[in-house]
Write the structure tokens for this entry.
Amino acid sequence: MDDLRNKYLGQIRDASDEDALEQVRLAAVGKKGEVALQMRELGRMTPEERQEAGPRLNALKDEINSAIAARKAGLEDAALDERLRSEWLDVTLPARARRQGTIHPVSQVTEEVTAIFADMGFAVAEGPQIETDWYVFDALNIPGHHPARAEMDTFYMAESAGTDEAGNPFVMRTHTSPVQIRSMEKTGAPTRMICPGRVYRADYDQTHTPMFHQVEGMAIDRDISMANLKWCLEEFCRAFFDVDGIELRFRASHFPFTEPSAEVDIRCSWEGGTLKLGEGDDWLEILGSGMMHPKVLQAGGIDPEEWQGFAFGMGIDRIAMLKYGIPDLRAFFDSDLRWLKHYGFGALRAPTRHAG
Ligand code: DAH
């Protein structure tokens, strides 16, 4: 019995972690452990022998169990000490210098636009960038033979991408307008949403990149009019550009998905080669808009006899260039660190439009 005692107390002392300790426990006092085997031997002993060996075996079992408990507590303490040592953090150290990363002007402007429209009660919606041509064109009153479809420089997905259940092929969305349809399907009327996101067209020069960003806006209610549209957009531009004397011009235009349609220009000057908003005799187009065409409302499952809506679509990159004086659109997507450092915003320095 002394041999057993020495053997197991030694192994317990030497157990280097909780797993090893558990192995020792099973071998010693587990159901099939050595102490249990000895206990079974008691049955074969004479009553006198049993009276002597029984209590000693029980005492040994207790001793081993408490040694294991003590070692276990010791191992846990050591593990905690090790964690405290390795995860130690000096909260009194000064903050690290500003890192290389900055907030991209597109992210920054998306934030600003979202905040301004959120204040006017517009929710933020999203839609897929790979979209069926039904949502991108047909549902927006652009049938197959319509010139607008040809003018869009659409990227078509490979034929192997298949079609949706109705047989419509997939395209990269050329504008955020399909999200109008998806939103109507989801929320019905009345509704108010904006949708910022990526759009794609096969085009590349100083003012065009194959991927760029738009924000779509849509408001549907029982008696929405052009006056509401005009107020909303003026309110937005005043808040966004934050320049005294911002002036907009609504110019009659044509889009298949709106009737009537208007393009909106902003007054500016190019004097001395730099762009100034709110003064001068030049006008810069910043968005397209109009009253939603009855067919578009219908495509979204909304009764045009009962509801009306306005919609607009604006280039996010374009208004970012205007607001922050960035000359070349292509540089937006070059990932040149020098450009990002110059035009990007530090996380704690980005201007905010969120209230409070
Ligand atoms: N989808 C148009 C484009 O990409 C922009 C646009 C014009 C959106 C008028 C609208 C709108 O919602 O009403 O050029």
